[in-house]
Write the structure tokens for this entry.
Amino acid sequence: MSKTSSGNYFEDFRLGQVIEHATPRTLTSGDVALYAALYGSRFAVQSSNVFATAIGYESAPIDDLLVFHTVFGKTVPDISLNAVANLGYADCRFLAAVYPGETLRATSEIIGLKENSSRQTGIVYVRSRGWRQDGRCVLDFVRWVMVRKRDPQAAPAGELVPSLPAALDGATLGHACPRLDISAYDFALSGSPYRFADYAPGERIDHIDGMTVEEAEHQMATRLYQNTARVHFNQFIESLGRFGRRLIYGGHVISLARALSFNGLANAFHVAAINGGRHVGPLFAGQTLFAWSSVLDKAELPGRGDVGALRVRTVATKDRPCTDYPDKAGEADDPSMILDLDYWVLIPR
Amino acid sequence: MSKTSSGNYFEDFRLGQVIEHATPRTLTSGDVALYAALYGSRFAVQSSNVFATAIGYESAPIDDLLVFHTVFGKTVPDISLNAVANLGYADCRFLAAVYPGETLRATSEIIGLKENSSRQTGIVYVRSRGWRQDGRCVLDFVRWVMVRKRDPQAAPAGELVPSLPAALDGATLGHACPRLDISAYDFALSGSPYRFADYAPGERIDHIDGMTVEEAEHQMATRLYQNTARVHFNQFIESLGRFGRRLIYGGHVISLARALSFNGLANAFHVAAINGGRHVGPLFAGQTLFAWSSVLDKAELPGRGDVGALRVRTVATKDRPCTDYPDKAGEADDPSMILDLDYWVLIPR
Amino acid sequence: MSKTSSGNYFEDFRLGQVIEHATPRTLTSGDVALYAALYGSRFAVQSSNVFATAIGYESAPIDDLLVFHTVFGKTVPDISLNAVANLGYADCRFLAAVYPGETLRATSEIIGLKENSSRQTGIVYVRSRGWRQDGRCVLDFVRWVMVRKRDPQAAPAGELVPSLPAALDGATLGHACPRLDISAYDFALSGSPYRFADYAPGERIDHIDGMTVEEAEHQMATRLYQNTARVHFNQFIESLGRFGRRLIYGGHVISLARALSFNGLANAFHVAAINGGRHVGPLFAGQTLFAWSSVLDKAELPGRGDVGALRVRTVATKDRPCTDYPDKAGEADDPSMILDLDYWVLIPR
């Protein structure tokens, strides 16, 4: 039997199967610095121990998306090494703050399987969880992925399309955010005076700035997350593939859009949940990412006067500024769109 | 009112205005490692906790220029987002050592304004300061920047060209350097036997080595400093601009030249002050930086037998080795010149 | 006398000469994070403090090759700045674990000299050692390098070709690995069930994955190691040289191959020794590295029931997958080969 892994194929997955993923990872201030260098994020809570402890964190928490990418990366060798496409996310909740020095591991449960009519591929629905060294679940999310079959004739090991929430209830969120003392939150240092009450559903924000991505950047990011998906690293193989070049990890796109969203959402310091998201199109090195957001909804958190939740939709485009909020035209996406993300952020009241 | 910032224009600044800049930043050993990876600096004091503590530091201090870039970066969103050019530096003093784990924030005071005759732009003179979490000022410097006007017809909010020192008095420097035990300074480990007494005004040093810069490198550096100047990151917009490409942050050039200067100035471990500097020409990715230095002056520090100050001029060039010390020809700069920096370094006696 | 160093030439070396290299270096979690971002290594012991301490390490040890590159880098300014080629390694032993926060310095002893018949160059044999702040030797290795002469007429300072072991005795290794509690070694988290007993001499493993290298990546790596070899950084000079471009540091190739070897050797968590190695051909940015390994030998460690040693040969290629184990054809190397490395790894029993 081969000692190497070529990843699982669609027919290898079983409903209810639980997979413990390799490699546990201690996140440190080194990872935090690299995350800063890769995205240039400027949220004060994640940037300054002094700012974070003044309001009630133990220290500056690790960026939520760095936690996400770390957990996601661990799932790749078992779940999506033979994926054709990462189709969607749902029910993603950040459940506990993670600080430098803490160690994460990941597990996944197969919650759905659906063979495609071509019998060449099937869709795998998986609930993945990230765990802190003390056994606390820090992240819980569902994604579904189209995975190749090894053998088109193989029978799928079951069929179930799970029922997933279109969006989380904002009022149930906030577990990863300690109760904060907003009187100690310095709105000059945070970069914006705008709070929960200042945002209204329907409001749109062009984040103005653009960020060009280089091959070395997305490769370093994706390796930092120990994500082994081949499409990101292997130009020799990709040169023969459908794009002719390396594809940038979708999570890199999310982190870039989130970093740009600081300009307009500077106090929305914590991603509490991701309702759903689509990687509408690929991003390649040399292209420039822009982003705009709209406020979809607002929610008070029961019993919490410190922070409220904004439901935000962020759209990222490539090589197209977002001054006029490029969007769908009926069913069709604007051709520049690369990301359409629906998530909840927490912001001081 | 828009929740996003497009930065200030010339007519937005007021004489005497004090700006508290966002985002406070805890510098860590992660930032130190990235700084090493970006520039390859080899000064023993900043590289080894053992070396640094042996001579009297609490631990290896953070590179002075990393402190500078961090503070500078914070000023960009408020001061120079609409700058046409960064014209000069003066009166820059490093006032306290910064160690990993410490947090910096920045403020700026508008100390001069001068509209240009075209009325399209004006010069803003600003004194910026970096502050440690304990309220101690770690860095104080003046820069002046040519900033666009939003409305050419707008009246400037005052006119004053401040008087600035051409150079600092070397004898007043050294506040960021604790009193050292030079008997514990190991000149084998530091890479050179040369001390204060070995350098003479007029002496010129070719730093020999060259360093080619890649887009990913300067982008990662500039994001690490949370510097948001668009010209460094946005190829889509810059492709339409005067150079057709991204401009490398001037501070990246300074750090590269400083790192190369190790070969010849290995014991000049601390930048105590910057008298002035000009970014003579732009540097672009793919070009190779070289540097040479001359000793302009020397100063003893009153009451200190441990270290003395050398006033150094470092010239950086692009795609041209510095074997023959390329310099000005009358008023004209050598066409390869990209940096002309005048600063004080401390070196063991 | 010039204050700058252009490095030593062949005739500058003396048999028995001992060189203390500049710059001591404290390795931190920042370096560990960068190492992860550069290579994407996934060995659990080096990745997780929880995993490492559970089995008996003080914390996650620093990757052996990061220790190697750090020590090697220090030797470059004195040993190989004027090298034409790095010819080989021998007798390389890792002697103590290194943890974040520890400081390394390096020394070298000239153990052999042999002028080439052209009298333009000569071979320098050097034993280099890395030392921890407490005086313990953490790494000891021999390399030999072809170094230019400054003056072809100069007489060499001696002639001696040292006797070097073709391979280390596996039974003498393991000093850098504390006695481990393998009952606490989690083979799900480590990514593979295969242990010492599961590998047999003669076995071959294709590591499957490929990794494309970018200029920014290998430059950042090599600067992180404070390695000053010009061929890696200076496109202006290299554009005039034999390849027309920057050469990637051979140690970067070794680290990439080692990271890829996780797929098939996931539990071989510690490089205990390097018997020998050849950089068969150069790697350039834009090329994709693949690797395969064979098990050459196995050794029990006297008195240790926790780990055993596998002697592994890893071959790396460029732009050629290793499905069919490309190798020598008689005396000739497969033209895709860039690395042929013979080393001992430790693996749980």
